[in-house]
Fold:
Amino acid sequence: MGVGAKIVLGAIADDFTGATDLANNLVRGGMRCLQVIGVPSQEVNLNNIDAVVVALKSRSCPADEAVTDSLAVLGWLRQQGARQLFFKYCSTFDSTDQGNIGPVADALLEALGANQTVMVPAFPVNGRTVYQGHLFVGDRLLNDCGMQHHPLNPMQDADLVRVLSRQTPHPVGLANRAMLAQGADATRAHLSTLAEQGVRHVICDTLDEQDLDVLAEATVLMPLVTGGSGLGQALPAQYRKQGWLETITQPGRLTPASGSALVLSGSCSRATLAQVADFLDKHPDGGFALDPLSLSEGDKQQEQALVFARERLSSNSPVLIYASADPDKVCAAQQALGVARAGALVEETMSQLAVALVNEGVGRLLVAGGETSGAVVSALGITTLRIGEQIDPGVPWTQAALAGRDAPLSLALKSGNFGGVDFFTRAFEVLV
Structure:
C-alpha cells in the first residue's frame, strides 16, 4: 500500500529505462515523481509525490505474464487514487506480433471499464515521429533504422496500425496530422466518433511538440493513455489546467552525489555503440569488453573485469565495462549460445559486477540498455527511485537508498538508443 496523499498520474512501464524516461519528462513538466521497481509488495511513501511510475520487465516476456503483472500494478495505482493511468512502452514500439502492447492495453481498458485509448509512441525531441501511422526514427522508417536487427523484438514494419492490428482482435484507427492541426477540440471529437464506431485503439500522428500538446489536451480526461515518454512531457500542463496539480519549484532536486563512477553497458544499439567508441577514444585504458562466449566458459572474464575496475575506480575518471558489440558479433554469440542464454550471461555478469563494485564504493552508476538496467536494479535490491534532473532527453539522474550506505546511490538508466555521442563522459560532468 501507499502512504501519503493521492497521486495525479499512475504509470505502468514495460521496462526500467522506459520508466525512467517517462519519469524524467514528468519531472521536467513540474511533477514530483517516484519510480517504483516491480509490483509493489510493501508500503511506499508517497508524501509530496505527484506521479508514480512502476517499472516492470514486461516488454519481452510472455504476453499473459505481462498482462498479469500490469493488472496487478493497475490495482495498486487505483488504490493510490491516480486520476489518470498511463501505459508506457518504447518510442520504437518494441513488440512482436503476439504482443505485448496490444494484449496489455486491452486488459487495462477492460479492467477500467473504458472503451478506447490512444497510442502515442512519438518523442520528437529524440527523433521519434509518426506520420500517417508510420513510425520514423530520425529520417528513417522504423524498419530501416537498425531496429530491424533488435535481438529480442526486431521491428520490420513501420506501419503501426498494421503492427498493432496483429496484436489485438479489436479495431485500430488513426488520428492523422491533418486532424491534429485542427486542434484539441476537433481531435477529441474525432476520437469520440471512432469510439462510436467501435475503434478501441487509435494510433496518433505526432511530428512536433505542438502535436503532443494537442493530444494531451484532447486526452487528459481519458482513464487510460498509452505511449512513449513524449506525451508525458505535455500532460502536466493539462493537469494544472484541471486544478489537479500545484506549481512545484525544483521537482527534481536530489542529494549531492558522492563515490566513484562506473558505466555498465549491455546495449548493442547504434547510439550506444557510438557512445562506447567515444568513451574509449577519450579514455583508451578505461574500458573492459565482455564477451558472451568467454562468459559461457566460466568466471574468469568476470573476475578479470572486477580486477580491471578496482584498479581504476580510485581515479576521478569513470570506468566502463561493456558487452556492447556490432550486429555480426552479437549474431555469432546468439548462434553459438542461443539468444536467451547469450543475453542472460551478460545480464547476470553485469548484475554481479554492479553489486560487488557498489558495495566497494561506487556511488555514481550509469547503466545502458533496458534489459541490463532491469537486471542491475533487481540485483541491487532497489525498490524505489527518486527522479532528478535530465542528462539528455529521456535520461535523468535518479537516487536510491541502499542498506548499509550513508549516502544514496546516484543512478542513471539509459535506454540503448538515447543520449548524445559523449553521454558516457558528460553524464558525470553534469551530476552535482
